[in-house]
Amino acid sequence: MALFSFFKKGDNKEKLNKGLEKTKESVFSRISRAIVGKSTVDDEVLDNLEEILITSDVGVETTLKIIDRIQERVAKDKYIGTSELNNILREEISQLLSENQTSEIEDFVIPNDKKPYVILVVGVNGVGKTTTIGKLAHQFKTNGYSVLLGAADTFRAAAVDQITIWSERVGVPIVSQGMNADPAAVAYDTIKSAIARESDVAIIDTAGRLHNKVNLMNELTKIRNVMQKLIPDAPHEVLLVLDASTGQNAIEQAKQFTAATQVNALALTKLDGTAKGGVVIGISDQFKVPVKYIGVGEKMEDLQVFNSKEFVDSLFN
Question: Residue 120 is inside which H or E element, if any?
C-alpha cells in the first residue's frame, strides 16, 4: 500500500507540474522581462510585478498584500537583488496559502466519526461541478469507501442525466427523482438511503444558478434544514466548485456563493487548461476558505487533493 501511495504521489506531482505549465510560462517569463537590466528590487520592479500578478488573476487585494510584504523586506534588508525576487515571491505566496490552509488535507480520507460523511456540492453550471462529483466519487471508492450520489440539481434534465452517467461510470448508486423534483426532497431521500445502506460518503449535487441570490440562499437553506432532520450536523462539507480558467469570474462566483451559504471547502477545476492558476492564491486569500481539490486533467484520477506546499513548489520550479 505504501509503495502504491509513493507511486501515486509521484504521478500526482507530475500531473500538477504539467497542469501549471501555462501559468508558469505566463507569469515567470514576464517577471524575467520585468527585471532585465535591473540589479535591485526598486519601485519600478515592484510596479511591474504588481501588474503581472494582477493580470495573472491573483486579484488586486491579494497582489497588494504580497507587494506590501515584499516592500517591507526590501526596506528592512536595505538591498535585495533581483536574483532573489523569485525566492522572496515564493516565500510570500507560500506564507499566504499556509495561513488559509489550516492543515494539509489527507488524500481523500474522511473523518471516522462522520458516517455518512455528507458533501453538498454547489457552483454555477459549466464549471465542471458534476464532473468533479464523479471524480470525487471515484477517488473515494478507490480509497475503499462506499459512496452514494444524490441528483438534487433538478432544474435541468441534462444535469440529472449527466450525474446518472457518472454514477454508472464510477459504479456507485444514485438517488434521483428526475427533472423538476423538489431538490430538498432528493437531498432528504439521499441521506435517508445513505443511512440505510450504511454508506461512508453521500455526495449531493445542487442547481447551479446565480441569477437570484435570494432564491439560491433559500433553496440551499431548505436543503440544509431537511438534511439536519436526519443528521444534525449535515452537511459536513459544502464544496464550492469553481473554474480556474475564468479568473476573476471565479472570484465573483466565490463572493456570491459564500454569501449565500456556509462554504467550507473549494474545488478549482481546469487548472491544466489555463494560464490563470494565480486565481488559486487570490481565492484562498480573499475568502479564507481552504482549497481542498484541484482538477489537473480530464481523467477520473485527475482530481487531486490540494497541497499548498506542492502547489508552490510546482509553480516556482
Answer: strand 117-122
